[in-house]
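User: I need a structural model of HNH endonuclease from Belnapia arida for a docking pre-check later this week. Nothing fancy, just the predicted structure tokens so I can convert them on my end. Input:
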Amino acid sequence: MAAPHMNFPAAVQRQALARQRNLCASCGTRISAPGEAGIASHAYGERAEAHHVIPHKKGGPVTLENCVILCRSCHYSVHQGGSWRDASIYDDLDLLPMRVRIAKIAALYPHYDG
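Assistant: Understood. Predicted structure tokens for HNH endonuclease:
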């Protein structure tokens, strides 16, 4: 049985957004603050959401390295659409150390490091 889902603490979300230079890790749209706080200044009026680079149910920790901040539509896409629909991107990671797993998937986000 998978562990219950764990949300990222607010401080980790703010640190991740700063690491990304206040850009959505996926599309690069400017995000002023995580959650509802940034809606008014978001180009498309979207909230920003924290996302686990390695899913929590696959052992992904609730750490800064495993956190990316995404626009709501990008977060939806990660879980529902595009190439992210195919979860096979995680298949070859199980035997790797967690830091390597995170780095491999984080590299798919163009604005992970800003």
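Before docking, keep this in mind: The chain is about 25% helix and 10% strand.
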